[in-house]
Amino acid sequence: MKIVIGGAMFKDEIKKYVQQYIPQAEVEIKSDIDAAMAVKANQADIYLGACDTGAGGSLGMAIALLGADKCKTLAMPGRVLSDEEIEQAVKDGVVAFGFTHQTSEHIIKTLAKYL
What is the pTM of this model? Predict the structure, then answer.
């Protein structure tokens, strides 16, 4: 599995958590447009991105290139999706995940169970 990290913030921190919780994954940091294009071109399987809202800077380019049905905000200020909601997003074929940078470890640890 190849995971690309786009989004606007804390890319090195996200990479560290991916390596910790999904050690079998190949992980690469890219710009948001390059990361989304890698998923679109089947050069990567999963896009992860963080920002202050969990949607704008983390997923904006992914939504534009992959479509809203392939993207999901997993954590936003004041709300983090449940494990069941995250599992359902993976089952539904979502490949781009956005979250607030403060929730990075929790989100990646949870995603690791379902990817």
Answer: 0.96
Q: Quick: pLDDT tens for 28-81.
A: 999 999 999 999 999 999 999 998 888 888 999 999 999 999 999 999 999 999
Take residue 104 and report the two structure tokens written for it: 């990075």
The residue extents of the domains of the chain are 2-114
Q: How far apart are the first and last CA of the chain?
A: 9
Q: What is the CATH number of domain 2-114?
A: 3.40.1400.10
Write the DSSP string, the chain: -EEEE-SSS-HHHHHHHHHHH-TTSEEEE--HHHHHHHHHTTS-SEEEEEESSSSHHHHHHHHHHH-GGGEEE-EETTEE--HHHHHHHHHTT--EEEEEGGGHHHHHHHHHHH-
